[in-house]
Amino acid sequence: MIDLNEHSSLEMLQALPLWKENEQLLSRESAGESNMNLVLRINTNLRSVILKQSKAYVRKFPQIPAPIERIEIEHTYFQLLQGDEILKQYSPRILLYYPEEHILLIEDLGNGIDFTFLYKPASQLAYDDLESLSKYLNALHQLKLPNFPDNSAMKKLNHEHIFHFPFLEENGFDLDSIQPGLQELSLTYKTDHLLKNAISKLSKRYLADGDCLLQGDFYPGSWLKTTDGLKVIDPEFGFMGEREFDLGVFAAHLDLAQQEESVFKDFLQLYQHPFSMELLNAYQGVEIMRRLIGIAQVPVSLDLTQKKSLLDKARMLILT
């Protein structure tokens, strides 16, 4: 396998069988901070494209192994969405798939920004964007896809970092390096056996097969604001499961971004499919917790008191 990185030469990239006749590469640069994969923006004499290559590890945490075939899941997911009139509006086009080198060539959506700005104080999710996100999930969650790959390897990776690792008393991750006092605060929940038993039961539901295609990581880092409207990217965690998982993750990040409760209520008014509020709440609670006391941190603007309040809310959501 050709192991590309941000400093790979234009000559090395040009030699890959990805390019049109007479296409010459002019420049390459990193296309933002991807947690999982190498992502490059490549400018040629004909166009600008995004090159994405998966590795056998998590890009942000190279010590964590990850299934290299996740790029195949992303390819399958996006190709399926191109067959839906609504979903293709919110998705980049796949230009070429090179499975031998675990590479996708993807439409360049321009200098869009993701929605992690929502974690900054006083940031608000616009109603137009809320509508777009609801249209996306409404369309996605009605697809009937009995042959979608089970993506079990990525589910196991996600399972570890949602339901298990954050709740180990000793996991080698010093939360005080994120915020002084967070390690001690986390022990309240890591030693709560009632809570951990409930999370263990929920984790078995997550690992079970379902009948609904999920994006699998539906949070602000997977949404892009572009000149062509909102786009949803990075579906490598996509799988057939319970729609409450996508909904719960979405609700959790509205909490982490300190959005008004009315925002999620408005979303539920727009969402068209039946769901269990109890199950949604449970997935919401565990996602809040894993983002505050797990390794997959997001750039929240919360002091320790606010984090405790949110962790207590998460506990209640899981247990009631």
TrEMBL record:
Protein keywords: ATP-binding, Kinase, Nucleotide-binding, Transferase
Domain Aminoglycoside phosphotransferase: 54-271
Record-level Gene Ontology MF annotations: ATP binding; kinase activity
Pfam families (alphabetical): APH
Family, similarity comment: Belongs to the methylthioribose kinase family.
PANTHER family: METHYLTHIORIBOSE KINASE (PTHR34273:SF2)
Protein name: 5-methylthioribose kinase
